[in-house]
Structures are given as structure tokens and as C-alpha cells.
Write a structure and sequence with these properties.
Elements lengths: L3 E5 L3 E7 L11 E8 L6 E2 L2 E2 L2 H15 L6 E5 L3 E9 L4 H10 L14 E11 L5 E10 L1 H13 L4 E6 H9 L9 E7 L4 E7 L2 E8 L3 H12 L4 H9 L9 E4 L2 E4 L7 H27 L8 E4 L8 H9 L3 E3 L19 H6 L1 H7 L13
Parallel strand pairs: 1-6, 6-10, 11-16, 16-17
Antiparallel strand pairs: 1-2, 2-3, 4-5, 7-9, 8-9, 11-12, 12-13, 14-15
Length: 375
């Protein structure tokens, strides 16, 4: 059965339906797709739905535009959500695992309520430790119960029947990565949205750490609007699309920040925008540094950078300079061949990249990559 991917982003709703199978090279074929923008005011705040009615109307409009049924949709969640790879004694039953996870002091519960959070897990490996005791590795996902309830209410208003509510982190891995069975490559995916950024470090096919950073492209747009006095955010957004950050030839990493080493002083606009970009880079890098500290023997090899904010010229170079690892722009594994109701995407890699999360959500349950159901 085909699933529909619905990505509720700060700027609009993106929907995708895929052909059932990947091609021989691992690419998916988009059968139907649509993007429905929200307009000047977003019904989300810091990634949380604040106006379910507006979001529901956009979901219905996007599905109608694409000619997609409202059945069997997989919807993403990124705020108040996290994931970890955890080791526990092997052989536990599901209710025993849940009791253990909710009672165990761990970083999952730094921001979430252990008693009420929605939990999902999968056993991804088993082994015996040095003492010969059987252990199992769990891929665990947790989301605040209230966040899931708002999504469920929104889908009910849209008259959409969800097959699952999935972590966008898992969707990113499915859309951007093709890993061989047993592969344990450690890599970080950074999805820079308008209001927030999702940082997911994967170990093979599974997220070992997921963190949401409350910096996004809007942080830079706000700096442009304040400094240049634009009357509207649309003007500031348009200016940002043509903006390039100052060259790193005049900057060097200094104690975790980027300091100006050049003779040419920055203009007020350059200074404000550069500071906003560096704040975001620093927040992302702090998450990567923390993951490296927690897994010193298996640090990330590099970063795949996606999302609208990733298009700001110079941001990739600044992140690479800050973390000291390669940073590449990510592209979903999407075939150049499009279905009749997705022809508007042909040749438009930017629009296809905007659908990365929706593509990964539509792949839910159809591949061996991680799938979560947090309903």
C-alpha cells in the first residue's frame, strides 16, 4: 500500500506520494506532489502548530492540488521530539521495556515528561557484553504527548487518516541515506528550517541523537529586516535569497566562534547578518560537540546540510570551519522521472530538496530504514 508523506513546515504544507518500489539504484519516483504555502503569517510557532484550522485547510488544499487521497498518511513531528540508541538487558517484553525506559534516568527526559511522553522503539541489534550477559540495542523515539495531540486534532480537522506519526529525523535518514545492512557509518544531518533546525546524528540507519535547535532561517531574515528597515518580511526574504555571507578568507575559528581577522570592516548589515548566521552555526555546532563528547570513540564523519536555510551562501563553509569536519549539501534520492501530477518538479532540484522530509515520510514502512509510530 502506498503511503502519503505530509510535512507540516513553518512556511507551508508539502505532500508526496511515491511509486511503490525504489529503482535498482535506490532512487524513489515521485508519483504525485504539491506544496501549499501558508502566506505572510505562519500558523506555527517554533515548529509547534498554533492554528490547527489553518494548517488543516492547507493540508486539504495540498492533497486536492496533488490529487492524493486522504487515507494512509504519514505525518512528521520534529518539535518536542528526540531519539536515542540505548542499550538494555536483552529478553524484556514490551511492557517491561517501557517501564524500564520511563524509569531510567537519561537524556531523553531532560526536556520531556517521562510519565506522559509518547514512546516508540525498535530492537536494532543484540550482543553479549564482556561478562557474557545478553544485551540489546534499542532505537528509541520520544515526543511530548501534547505535541502529538495537536497533530492528531489537526489531522482530524483535515479529515486525514494517519497511518503513523513519524519523527522527521527518521524521514531525513530514509530520504538522504542509502546504507548497506550492518553499516555503522556515523554522520550528522542538519535540516535548517524557517523557525528551527533539526540536528540528527545517525549510526548506520538509525538516529543515535536527535536535537531541535531554536534557530532557523527566520533568525537571519529578522536581522536583515531590522537592519535594512524593510517594511515586510517578504522583502527581507527576497534580499536574503541574493545575499552571501562575507568570505571566510577574512575569518578564522577562535574558541568556538568565528572572529573577523580582515582589514576591511564589515558594514552594519554584514555585521548583523553575519552575527545571526554565526549564532545559528554555533548552536548547531554545540549539539554536534555534545554528541562527540558522548561518543568520543565514534565521532561524526561529517554533515549533510538541507532545508531552506542551507541555501544561504556561505553557511556551509562557516559550519565546516566551526566543527572541523566536511559539510556537504544533501539531496534526496529522488529519480529524475516524475509522475504526471509531479511534472512541475522536473529539473527543479530546489523544489525537490524542499520535499526531502515529505519523501522520507512517504517511505515509512516500505524500507528497512527506521520507521516510528508515535500515535
Amino acid at each position: 500500500m502506498n503511503h502519503i508523506g505530509i510535512d507540516i513546515a513553518a512556511t507551508g504544507v508539502r505532500v508526496v506520494e511515491l511509486e511503490k518500489k525504489l529503482d535498482s539504484s535506490g532512487f524513489v519516483t515521485i508519483k504525485k506532489a504539491a506544496i501549499e504555502p501558508f502566506g505572510s503569517t505562519s500558523p506555527l510557532s517554533e515548529g509547534e502548530i498554533t492554528d490547527p484550522v489553518t494548517v488543516a485547510e492547507a493540508i486539504r488544499a495540498a492533497l486536492a492540488k496533488a490529487g492524493i487521497s486522504r487515507k494512509s498518511a504519514v505525518v512528521g513531528v520534529s518539535t518536542n521530539a528526540t531519539a536515542r540508541l540505548l542499550v538494555i538487558p536483552a529478553g524484556a517484553r514490551d511492557h517491561e521495556r517501557e517501564t524500564l525506559l520511563r524509569s531510567r534516568p537519561m537524556s531523553l527526559w531532560d526536556l520531556l515528561d517521562a510519565k506522559t511522553a509518547r514512546l516508540s522503539w525498535r530492537v536494532v541489534d543484540t550482543y553479549r557484553d564482556e561478562e557474557g550477559s545478553p544485551r540489546e540495542v534499542l532505537a528509541v523515539a520520544a515526543v511530548a504527548a501534547e505535541t502529538i495531540q495537536v497533530i492528531e486534532h489537526t489531522l482530524d480537522l483535515a479529515q486525514v487518516r494517519p497511518a503513523a506519526i513519524d519523527l522527521t529525523a527518521s524521514a531525513l535518514i530514509r530520504a538522504l541515506v542509502r546504507s548497506a545492512p550492518g553499516e555503522d557509518v556515523v554522520q550528522t544531518i542538519v535540516d535548517v528550517g524557517a523557525q528551527h533546525t533539526v540536528v540528527v546524528t545517525r549510526n548506520g540507519a538509525y538516529p543515535r541523537d536527535v536535537t531541535t535547535v531554536n534557530y532557523g532561517g527566520d533568525h537571519i531574515t529578522d536581522a536583515i529586516q531590522r537592519t535594512m528597515g524593510f517594511a515586510s518580511r517578504e522583502q527581507a526574504e527576497d534580499h536574503k535569497r541574493h545575499l552571501a555571507l562575507p568570505s571566510l578568507d577574512d575569518y578564522t575559528p577562535t574558541f568556538g566562534s568565528l572572529a573577523n581577522q580582515g582589514d576591511q570592516p564589515l558594514s552594519e548589515v554584514e555585521r548583523m547578518v553575519t552575527q545571526a548566521a554565526d549564532d545559528m552555526v554555533s548552536a548547531i555546532a554545540d549539539v554536534i560537540d555534545q554528541d562527540t563528547s558522548n561518543h568520543a570513540t565514534e565521532p561524526t564523519r561529517g554533515v549533510l546540510l538541507v532545508g531552506g536555510g542551507a541555501r544561504l551562501r556561505g553557511i556551509r563553509e562557516r559550519l565546516a570551519a566551526r566543527i572541523g569536519r566536511p559539510v556537504h549539501l544533501g539531496q534526496p534520492w529522488v529519480s529524475d522521472r516524475m509522475g504526471r501530477q509531479a511534472r512541475f518538479l522536473e529539473g527543479d532540484r530546489r523544489a525537490i530538496t524542499d520535499l526531502t522530509v515529505a519523501v522520507g515520510l512517504a517511505m515509512w514502512g516500505s524500507v528497512s530504514q527506521p520507521s516510528t509510530d508515535l500515535q
